[in-house]
Write a structure and sequence with these properties.
It is a single chain. The chain is α/β, with parallel strands linked by helices and 431 residues long. It has two domains: 110 residues, no CATH class; 254 residues, Alpha-Beta Barrel (TIM Barrel). It is built from 15 helices and 14 strands. It has a nine-stranded mixed sheet with strand order 3-4-5-6-7-8-9-10-11. Helix 13 links the parallel strand 7 and strand 8. Helix 4 packs antiparallel against helix 5 and helix 9 runs parallel beside helix 12. The longest helix is centred in the middle third of the chain and has 15 residues. The radius of gyration is 21 Å and the shape is globular. Bound molecules: iron/sulfur cluster. One of its GO terms (molecular function) is catalytic activity. Keywords: 4Fe-4S, Iron, Iron-sulfur, Metal-binding, Pyridoxal phosphate, S-adenosyl-L-methionine. This is Kama family protein. Its cofactor is pyridoxal 5'-phosphate.
Length: 431
């Protein structure tokens, strides 16, 4: 029997696992990380089976549903639309039972969590002509495979190419997850020691680097012993001062963090403590997009990390129909701050293939920031940023040089360094 620190008890768990498909599962099993992994819904056939078990036969009228989905009245129509959406999607399907239990299956057409993980054919919008699969040109700024070096003092260490869930809007859809009908994922990053070794060597020989983001894929899928190896190896490099382990686990499978014997959580906490003793830092960068994702399990897990001294920061992606209104975004930011998760960034959606229905115009992030800045304590207010297509890096969204709202084209100037000229990058609103 797995053990777990439940603290606040099971009182709301029943509501969370009321789905018919798991009605016979007891709470402790549901919360067990191994059970979550073993029962993760992967691939279109398993998803279709799940949907037939979870959805009502007739889809209830949903006043919040987008116009393009209002014709879907039955479970059969919904499942067929999902299968059509999957055939056009750049990301394969993988969703934890935890996340499946957060979705409101009586409102599948508008549910903000469903929108992030399960595509529907009827909402598909043609890609913008300026859009590229590797939107941020990560492969073009990698001195060795899996290490992205775009900023002067910071690099991205892509340790794995798998995640506990696959988000439809993933920036790294060119490499993360299994191949889809649309994307072959030839450039995936397997967790091989030889590849990592070349990445360590580059970091050791590049003294300007002080910050390393350990990501992938998702840091949750770095085996615990490898997480320890990577953090120890990086902390031992004198010029590396800060490490950020990127994982959506706190949002999508948080019960793992509450399991006392879980080795991954222990590796993270130990690395954080070791770093502090060295005057350095190892933090967790996580990814909540909607208040519904802040379940009681995530709150308890965040509290445990807080008590253990692990700094947790959040990076939200602005998504149409998910969090693109002031009220939702403000609620999310307050919830994060109240759970000692630093609201670090809100990102303008990247120009990623296959998810134009989720992208908002730049004006939306500007408007949301206008309402939020000043209404929440400064230290709990995130930076509203845009990661410039083509590898220009992050800029404050409001720092555009030009923005023509009629054409939807904005420009940002990135100052040159080391004698190179300033460079202009463009962002294009959805058409
Ligand atoms: S968890 Fe992160 S890396 Fe994985 S699919 Fe989602 S956005 Fe991409």
């Amino acid at each position: 029997m797995p053990s777990i620190c439940l603290g606040l008890s099971y009182r709301s768990l029943r509501a969370q696992i009321k789905l018919a498909v798991w009605k016979d599962i007891n709470e402790v099993d549901f919360l067990d990380y191994n059970w979550q992994v073993a029962n993760t819904i992967q691939g279109k056939d398993k998803l279709a089976r799940f949907l037939y078990a979870a959805l009502p036969e007739d889809i209830p009228y949903d006043e919040d549903a987008p116009e393009s989905l209002r014709h879907i009245r039955t479970r059969d129509m919904f499942v067929q639309d999902v299968l059509g959406g999957i055939s056009l999607a750049p990301m394969s399907i993988r969703i934890t039972p935890h996340i499946m239990s957060v979705i409101d299956w009586n409102k599948p057409l508008s549910d903000p969590v469903r929108r992030q993980f399960i595509p529907l054919r009827s909402t598909f919008v043609e890609d913008h002509p300026k859009l590229q699969l590797d939107s941020l040109n990560e492969t073009g700024t990698s001195p060795t495979p899996g290490l992205v070096h775009r900023y002067h003092d910071k690099a991205l260490f892509l340790a794995v190419s798998v995640c506990p869930v696959y988000c439809r809007f993933c920036t790294r859809s060119y490499s993360v997850g299994g191949p889809t009908e649309e994307v072959s994922k030839k450039s995936a990053f397997p967790p091989t020691r030889r590849r990592w070794e070349r990445m360590f060597e580059y970091i050791e020989q590049t003294p300007q680097l002080s910050d390393i983001v350990v990501s992938g894929g998702d840091g949750y899928y770095i085996p615990p012993e490898h997480l320890t190896t990577i953090t120890e190896r990086l902390l031992a490099i004198p010029h590396i001062r800060r490490i950020q382990v990127a994982s959506k686990g706190l949002a999508v499978c948080p019960s793992r963090i509450l399991t006392p014997e879980d080795e991954w959580t222990k590796a993270l906490i130990d690395a954080s403590k070791t770093a502090k003793q060295m005057g350095k830092s190892v933090a967790l960068h996580t990814h909540f997009n909607h208040p519904a994702e802040m379940t009681w399990v995530s709150r308890l897990a965040a509290q445990k990390l807080y008590e253990e001294g692990v700094t947790v920061r959040n990076q939200t992606v602005l998504l149409r129909g998910v969090n693109d209104d002031v009220k939702t975004m403000k609620t999310l930011i307050r919830m994060l701050a109240d759970n000692n998760i630093i609201p670090y960034y809100v990102y303008q959606g990247d120009m990623v293939s296959g998810v134009e229905d989720l992208r908002t115009p730049l004006s939306t992030i500007l408007e949301i920031e206008r309402h939020i800045r000043g209404s929440i304590a400064g230290f709990a207010t995130p930076n509203f940023v845009i990661d410039l297509p083509g590898g220009g890096g992050k800029r404050l969204a409001a720092s555009y040089e030009t923005y023509d709202r009629s054409t939807g084209v904005s420009t940002y100037v990135v100052p040159g360094s080391g004698g190179s000229k300033d460079k202009v990058y463009e962002y294009h609103d959805p058409l």
